[in-house]
Amino acid sequence: xxxxxxxxxxxxEDLEATGGRLMGRKHVLSILVENxxxxxxxxxxxxxxxxxxxxxxxxxxxxxxxxxxxxxxIDGAEHPIDQVTKQLHKLVHVLKIxxxxxxxxxxRELALFKVEADAHVRQEIAQLTEIFKGRVVDVARRSITVExxxxxxxxxxxxxxxxxxxxxxxxxxxxxxxxxxxSET
Amino acid sequence: xxxxEAIMECLRAEDVEVIFGLPxxxxxxxxxxxxxxxxxHILVRHEAGGGHAAEGYAKATGKVxxxxxxxxxxxxxxxxxxxxxxxxxxxxxxxTGQVRTDLLGTDGFQEADITGITMPIVKHSVMIRDARDIxxxxxxxxxxxxxxxxGPVLVDVPQDLSRADIDYEPVxxxxxxxxxxxxxxxxKQIRLAAKALANAQRPVLYVGGGTVSAEASAELRELxxxxxxxxxxxxxxxxxxxxxxxxxxxxxxxxxxxxxxxAMDEADLIVAIGARFDxxxxxxxxxxxPAAKFIHIDIDPAEISKxxxxxxxxxxxxxxxxxxxxxxxxxxxxxxxxxxxWWVKIRKWQQEYPLRYEDSTDSEIKPQFMVQExxxxxxGNAIVSSDVGQHQMWTAxxxxxxxxxxxxxxxxxxxxxFGLPAAMGAQVGCPEELVVCLAGDGSxxxxxxxxxxxxxxxxxxxxxxxxxxxxxxxxxxxxxFWDRRYSAVxxxxxxxxxxxxxxxxxxxxRVTDKSELGDAFKEAIETEGPVLVDVHVTREENTFPMIPxxxxxRDMVG
Lengths: 185, 558
Description:
The complex is a heterodimer.
Chain A: E1 26-34, H1 39-50, E2 56-61, E3 67-75, H2 81-89, E4 94-100, E5 105-116, H3 119-131, E6 135-139, E7 143-150, H4 152-166, E8 167-172, E9 176-179
Antiparallel strand pairs in A: 1-3, 1-4, 2-3, 5-7, 5-8, 5-9, 6-7
Helix pairs in contact in A: 3-4
Chain B: H1 3-13, E1 18-21, H2 28-35, E2 40-43, H3 47-61, E3 65-69, H4 73-76, H5 79-87, E4 92-98, H6 114-118, E5 124-127, H7 134-146, E6 152-158, H8 159-162, H9 187-199, E7 203-207, H10 209-213, H11 217-225, E8 231-233, E9 248-251, H12 258-266, E10 269-273, H13 279-282, E11 293-298, E12 312-315, H14 318-331, H15 340-352, H16 367-378, E13 383-386, H17 390-398, E14 407-408, H18 419-429, E15 435-440, H19 441-444, H20 450-456, E16 462-467, H21 472-481, H22 497-503, E17 507-511, H23 514-526, E18 531-536
C-alpha cells in the first residue's frame, strides 16, 4: 500500500481476511482478573457455552491482592484463539489477556506420580526421578510418590517412563507461565 | 440514608423517568423507597411483561430501560427479557431483590441464584455483598448497559442490605478498568476501507441493528448517498435507511427480498455496519457471498470474524467511523459510472421479483394486505412492535420504516409474547406517538395480561391482531418441510378476543371482511385508550420469499 490518499490501483483480490482462523498449536493464556466472586464461574461458563475446551487451568493470587491470575491452556487446532480471547475480554472483570508464545515464556507445572513399587524397582524409579530433577515425596511398602516440575513435555515424558511400573495415580496442577525477560506477563 | 433511598438517588441521577416492575417480599424496602421517590413506576402483571416493557422503552427512546422484580420466581421471570435484551443489544438494567444475606445458599423461601442463572445472558451482573457498594454498582450498571455494545445488566440486592443505613455521596467517575470499549475507529483501517469501496464494482452496504444503537442513521445515509451504494438492512436494522428509496434493496435474510439476497450473493465488497452475520442472514455459511470481500464495522471486537472472516475490520462506534469513511471515500474521487452495470443487474432483480402475494378477490383478508392497510392508514408514521412469527416477517416486509427506532421487535431471541409489553414500554417512552402492536394470535396470549396494565395506566397502544388460528410459522414449516403433518399448531377457537379486550378494560373490535379493514383501523386509532382489533386473516398463507434453513441465497423459494 502507498501513502494514504494516493490513487494507486487497489485490487480487492489482494485483500486477505484476518482472524477467525485456527492456529494449530497449544496456547497458554495468562489472564489477569479482578478478584471478585464468580469470576471463574463466568470464564468457565463462557467456555462451556461457546464450546471451547480448557486443557488445563490454574488460578492463584498475584502480587496485588485485588487481582488474580488465571493461566489456561487451550488447543488452537480446535478453537480460533482470537475469538476465545475476544469473548473473554467482554467480561467486565477480565483486565488483561496474554497469549504467551512458547519461545518467549517460561512454563511450569507440578505433577505428583504415585507408582506401584516394591523394594526391587524402588531404586530404578528413584533414579529416573533424579534424572528428571524430581523428588521422592512419599515411600510406602508397595508404592512410591514422586514430584516432578517442568513444562508439559517433561511431565508427559516422565509419565511414559513410569507407566510400565504401574501408575496408580497422577495429579497435575496445570501449567503456569511467565513472560521471559523484563516485560510483564 | 437507607440503601434503597440511595438507589433512588442513583436512578434520578441517571435520568430514569420510569420503572416497570412488580413487588414482592425481598424488594419490599425498594418499593417503600419508590413510594415517595418521584419516579414513575408502572405496575406490570408479570415480570416478563415488565422486562419486555423496559426493552420496548429502550428500543424506542435509546435510553436505558429499567425493570424491577423480587427474588426467586420474580427474578426468574425476567430471564427471557434478559436473554432477549442480550441478543438484541438492548440497554437495560434489571434490579432484583434477593433473600437476606444470612439465608443465601440455604434454599431460603423465594431464593434463586439469579446472577448464576443469568450469567451467560447478561452483559454484566453483580450481586451486592456490601451495602456501601450499592451506589457505585447502580451507576456502573447504567454505564455498562448503555456504552459500547449495549446490553442487559443485572443488579441483585439482598433484602437486608437494601435496608441498611449507608452514607450516600453522589458517585463521580466510573472505575471499571476491565471495561474500556473502543469507540474511535482506526484511521489506517478507515483509509483502507475507503480505497476498497472506491475499487469495488459491486458493493453492498449491509446494515444491522448496531447502526440504530449507535444513532448513526444520518451518518449511514451520508455514506450511502456519497455514491449510489445499494443498501440492505437486517430485521434489526430496519429504519436505519429510509424505505422506500431508490438505493433501498429491502430487508435481507431468510425472508428478505431476492434483490437484497442476490446482491449479497454477487457482491464483490460487503460493508457490514453493526451487523453480526447471523445464520438468518448468511444461510449456508460456506456458500454465503462467495465473491465478496468484507469490511466489518462493529463496536464489539468479538463480532469481527466470528462467523465470516473480515478482510478489513474496523472496531469502533459507527457514528465515529461512518463520517470519516465518507470523507476518505469522497477524497478519492472515485469513478461514479463504475456502479452502473451493478444497478442494471439489481434493477432487473427488483423488477422481476418484487415482494408479492396473491390478493383475494372476495372479502377474505390476506395477512400481507392487512400490513399494507396498516401502512396506508398510519401513513408509515407509527411505532410498530411485533411478536414473533409470520406476522413479524410480513410486517418487516410490507411496512416501510422511514426512520430508526420505529420498529420494535425481538430479532435475535425470537421471543413470542414480546410485542404487547414492548409496545407498552415504547408508548410510555413516546407518549405523543401512535404505537401499534401488530400481534400474532399465538404470541399475544403469552403476555396478554399487560393489557390490564395498559388500561389502568392510560397507555393507549393499538393492538392489531393477525389472527389465523395457527402457530403460523411453525405450520408453514410443517407444510413445506414436514409433509403437511400439522403437529400441535392449531390454536383453536379461543379466546374470544373481543370479550377478552373488554374484560381487560380495552376496546375490542373484530374484522372479518376486507372492505371494513381500513375503516376499522382508523376507528381504532381514533379511539382513546388501548384497543384490540381481532383481524381474521387467511388461515394457511405462507411467508415468502424464503431461504430454507441451511441453504444459500440462490436457493430462495416462493
